[in-house]
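pls design
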């Protein structure tokens, strides 16, 4: 593969020449939110779009850099903000760089030792996701939250570990303020 260019629209947060789009609706996120009752009610009322990932295709091989723009829509389940599923990389020693393009949100990261880091993201914020840290992004605003992620193309996504254990903390809206609280469903293995 040779050099190529693409363009992010900074007004909409959308990657204009994307090759593939991943769509995640509420129904794709069973048991990820803490409040099961609020989740069931929300899904049956309207299976809302939670986030979309606009990807460029590069070969999934060592040395290549995958890059994708994620747009998380505003919304909450109970008091928990709309968020991504979250994952470790299948090659756990691979890092990733996030750059916020639009809106306001945050990234929650945790490692196998149960350590947690939460960093806020506003346009221009860059977050270095260190190797071995799982990562999930959260839209804490009432508009679209968009960011670019750049990562080794052979990193892979391990969703299973997060589905089993959850993250140690939830990111919630408490009377209009963003707070981290213990995740009652956290199932440390
Ligand atoms: C890939 C990178 C992002 C996420 C995207 C969706 O390593 O971290 O492109 O894939 O933000 O999140 P998730 O957890 O559903 O893959
Ligand atoms: Zn990642």
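designed seq:
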């Amino acid at each position: 593969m040779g050099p190529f260019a693409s363009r992010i629209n900074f007004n909409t947060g959308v990657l204009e020449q994307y090759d593939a789009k991943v769509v995640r609706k509420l129904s794709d996120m069973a048991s990820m939110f803490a409040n099961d009752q609020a989740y069931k009610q929300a899904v049956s009322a309207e299976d809302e779009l939670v986030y979309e990932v606009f990807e460029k295709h590069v070969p999934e091989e060592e040395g290549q850099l995958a890059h994708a723009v994620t747009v998380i829509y505003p919304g909450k389940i109970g008091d928990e903000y709309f968020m991504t599923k979250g994952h470790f990389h299948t090659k756990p020693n691979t890092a990733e760089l996030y750059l916020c393009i639009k809106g306001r949100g945050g990234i929650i990261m945790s490692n196998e030792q149960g350590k947690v880091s939460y960093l806020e993201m506003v346009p221009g914020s860059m977050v270095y996701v260190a190797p071995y840290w799982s990562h999930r992004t959260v839209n804490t605003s009432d508009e679209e939250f968009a960011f670019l992620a750049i990562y080794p193309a052979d990193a892979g996504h391990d969703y299973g570990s997060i589905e089993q254990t959850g993250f140690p903390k939830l990111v919630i809206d408490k009377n209009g303020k963003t707070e981290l609280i213990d995740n009652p469903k956290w199932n440390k293995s």
